Model the fold of this input.
Amino acid sequence: MFYFRQTLLCCILLFSFSLTSLAQQFSDTQIEQRVNALLRKMTLEEKAGQITQLAGMNAHTAEMIKQGKVGSILGVLGAENVNEAQRAAVENSRLKIPLIIGYDVIHGYRTVFPVPLASAGSFDPQLIEQSERVAAKEASASGVKWTFAPMVDIARDPRWGRIVEGAGEDPYLGSVVAAARVRGFQGNNIADPESVVACAKHYVAYGAVEGGRDYNTVDISEELLREVYLPPFHAAVDAGVGTLMSAFNDLNGVPATANHHTLTDILRDEWKFDGFVVSDYNSIHELIAHGVAADDSQASLEALSAGVDMDMADDDYERFIPDLVKSGKLPESVVDEAVRRVLRVKFKAGLFEHPYADPAREKTDILTADSLQIERKMAQESMVLLQNNNDLLPLKKAQTVAVIGPLADDKASQLGSWAGNGQAKDAVTPLEGIVTKLGKEHVLYAKGVDIPPFEKGLAAGVAAPAPTSATGAAGVETSNKAATIEDAVSAANKADTVILFVGELAGMTGEASSRASLELPGDQMKLISAVLATKKPVVLVLESGRPLNISWAPGHVQAIMQAWFLGVQAGNAIADVLFGDASPSARLPLSWPRSVGQIPIYYNHKNTGRPSAPDRWHTGYLDLSNEPLYPFGYGLTYTKFKYSNVSVKSGIVRSITFGGKEGVRGVAGSLHVTAEIENTGKREGTEVVQLYVHDRVAPTSRPVRELKGFQRVTLAPGEHKNVEFTVQANDLGSYDPDMHWIVPAGTYDVWVAPDSASGVAGTFEVQ
Ligand code: BGC
Done:
């Protein structure tokens, strides 16, 4: 889990320095004094209330707030509404403790950004941070002071719908992205009215649910937990995240919401986290269904004792904690500690000084031209070019294109799932973006088919015969009769190039949106076959929140672009990239399976005793290769890059010390790797240069490769550059079977690479 901590240490130190010097009006000591002074005045009922979060506002909740029985509200939006709720606390409750107002600002508030899986693929932490700054500014203008983001769950199974909310499969990329998002939300100063408190969720291993089924059981080794699922949370903590959210899942027999090992032993004792942990929605009550609590009183006792400080939505803490203390089952000191953590965050967030939102800002700070510009850039940088035969892309503007497919003009789906306060009417569809780029006389449009929604537990039905809208985007001729494949074929026949927009509806990924199949839903394959039969050049643009089965595509279409769900500027960004006003640079943040049967699939797998080989007695399938269709880190540009001259500087790591679970602090040295990257193509391009290592011999078997660094490098045609990576020795380590962090001696492989399956290789020694 220390992959990343040394490399970031400097920035984190600088960050915390600026936080103390510029931002906080009060020192940490002063804050502790204020917290303790307030705590001493609180009754047991007020303490239980302070660690209670209720969903929504109504007369009953307002009354509870006045009685000091609520510490937080979620899902109340709008400066005036928030201020009204806040007034009940600040003006009408005995101790006048402000509420902290929470909301799911997952990928933007009103300026909806690409879904998190997509923006993670930009490998651009600076731009990600800037995007979250926009989200924080907008959300805070609407009265939100706390976002339930970033979602930092590692996921190796695209059947799991919530893969769309995270940064994909890799703990290093996941850690870099987690820290960037925390910095973006919280800014240099968490008390700044334009900052929001971040919440790293869902702690922990929620992404490992069996079969990819949401809310399902997780049973994984301590090593896997520590090496894969915990690092992004640790990175978020190191970046100063104010809060964490406990997960819904059972983890090795103990639900994450009652898991003392993860919530206290690791989070508090090892990582020294001093913010607070909120449960997920109703997850304390759900301890009963898990079968570890007989009733809500026992559920409250278990969750609070394990380390869940605030109760989201089920009102168990407020109802049961006072009696648990009075009956002697729960020491009051445990309640005090939870209250202390909540108050600490409220003080640090400046809520006592600035409890109210400024309604004027709501009118000026939301959906601004600047925000839309940043979102457009983030969207351009999130599209992954998977194939580009004969440089079909970028397309020439002087031609007629047929824009075909059910997602080409679907506004709601451009936003993706869990789109904050996003509104479909704000979204630019691909059809609109292309019409703006080419002029409507050069664009033909046909929807082709509808995508029928799923009914839970049933396979996708046939396309609903709903009529398509009569008023197409940007004045392009559409009809109000049902979408037909014939119309699509006719449009394709009249065009020079076909751009096909297929995929999933936004609601097909996200919470409670797991799928057993990765096929394109509905009749989309029929549409595709009919369009391919016209023999026109086809650009396949996929919009989805997960990799879908496109194993058929490489031999049949000229170009493939994975567009995910790109947010309000989706259509403009897609048109920019397809027609060469911007260049693709994103990479896959996950391994793209050939078939659902390969899942779980991830690049950093173990070698096995019988590594992959053609003969039968090596690990593999009789009927399919082990390799993904596209590996983690893969993505093309509009130019070509050559990698050469990899060199490893100096003998590096010398002292190998064994440490406790907290990791080794004393390992000296660092690894310096350079390689030459040259743009050998004809256009400027941005390459995501990746550094991977592999420890050949260790006490536990090591992944065949592990990402340890990456850089975005922009080069003009013919230009070359020596790209240098530094990896701290400590970040080369792993856990031994007793869960001690070690840096094993011996030979390591190293690659500087365009993706996880290729690159120029070298070796180095740890002595
Ligand atoms: C989700 C969380 C979310 C919470 C509050 C839950 O259902 O799992 O991710 O933050 O609801 O909306």
